[in-house]
Amino acid sequence: MNRLVKLRIASASPAEIKPTLIMKPLRIQLKRAYASPSAEDGIRILVDRLWPRGLTKSKAAIDRWLKDVAPSTELRKWFGHDPSRWEEFCRRYEAELSQKSELLSELRTIARKSPLTLLFAARDELHNEAVVLRDFLMR
Predict the structure, then answer these.
(1) CA 7, CA 120: separation in Å to the nearest integer?
(2) Which one of 9, 42, 74, 91 has the largest count of C-beta atoms within 10 Å of its C-beta?
(3) Within a 13 Å sphere around the CA of 18, how many CA atoms are in the beta-carbon half?
(4) Nearest Cα to 46, choosing from 28, 29, 27, 62?
(5) 32: phi then psi, degrees, rounded to nearest 5
(6) pLDDT in tens, 11-63
């Protein structure tokens, strides 16, 4: 039986053999910017449009501030961290994200190479832009 398999593979033309691309899984976690950094964080990227109040750059231990991937000022102000607007916020923010393919590709590349921690300042850990961004990147 093994011979048959080997013969079929050997007789296959290059057009019949399709390479399989195995992508490494994305390693993305979320964390409040005010939380202490840890070794498991990997690359720490702040994804807020505004710098977190009262947080010094040294204490934040942020590797990069990617404010261009954050929701637009208009969307951020409209949402106002109101959970009743969450579903609509997600829809609108995802529409904005779909226009930022270069930044998303960069974040995915980072997340395949090492752990990526998306940092946010919001108190609500379930309803913030980092949650939407992570879910969008994972698709």
Answers:
(1) 56
(2) 42
(3) 3
(4) 62
(5) -65, 140
(6) 555 566 565 556 678 999 999 999 999 999 999 999 999 999 999 988 999 99
